Amino acid sequence: MKKIILSIILTWSVGIVHAETIVDVSKIAGKSQEDVATYLGKEISCSKGKHGNKCQYNKGEVEVVFINGKADWITVEGINNIPFTKSALNALGLQETRPSFKNNFTLRWEGIQGLRSVSLFKGASKSDYAYIKVKTK
C-alpha cells in the first residue's frame, strides 16, 4: 500500500515540477511574421498598431507584436493549468531558473536565454498568462 501511495505522489509531483511545453518562445522570438506562422500556424487575425503588426494565433493562445518586422512582444495565454512557479518556464520552452523579481501576483526574469524579460502573472489559483519582451522595452 505504501508503494502505491508513493508511486501516486511521485507521478503527481513530476507533472507539477515539469510543465509540458505549450509554446516554445525561442522558436518565435525575434523571428519574422512568416517564420512565426510556420511554427504557430496561420494567424487568426492581424491589425496594424502603433509599434507594428499585432497578430493572434490559436496555438497556445498567443499574441505577437512585430516590431521592425520581428516578433518582439509575445503574450501567451491558456496556461491556466500551469503552476505559478518558476517551473512555468518549461511551458514556454525555457529553462527553469530563479526569478529576478517576485510577489504574490508576478514572477519576472530579466535577461534569460537572450530575452529582455519574461513575466508570469497569477490567475485565480495557478498561472494566468505570460508576457515576453524580446528586445524592445
How is this structure best described in words?
This protein has one domain (2-133). The protein is 18% helix and 31% strand. The protein has 137 residues and is α+β, with helices and mostly antiparallel strands. The protein has helices spanning 2-17, 33-40; strands spanning 45-48, 53-57, 62-67, 70-76, 101-102, 106-110, 117-122, 127-133. An eight-stranded antiparallel β-sheet has the order 1-2-3-4-8-7-6-5, with helices on one face. It has two helices and eight strands, in the order ααββββββββ.
Essential attributes:
137 residues; alpha+beta; 2 helices; 18% helix; globular
| Gross geometry | globular
- Mean pLDDT reading: 89
- Beginning-to-end CA distance, first to last residue: 55 Å
Structural class: alpha+beta
Lateral arrangement of strands in the main beta sheet: 1-2-3-4-8-7-6-5
- What percentage of amino acids are in beta strands? 25-35%
The SSE order reads HHEEEEEEEE
Radius of gyration: 16 Å
- How many domain regions? 1
* Total of DSSP H or I helical runs spanning 4+ residues: 2
Q: Give start-end ranges of low-pLDDT stretches.
A: 1-17
Work out the helicity level: 10-25%
What's the total number of strands? 8
The major sheet is characterized as:
8 strands, antiparallel
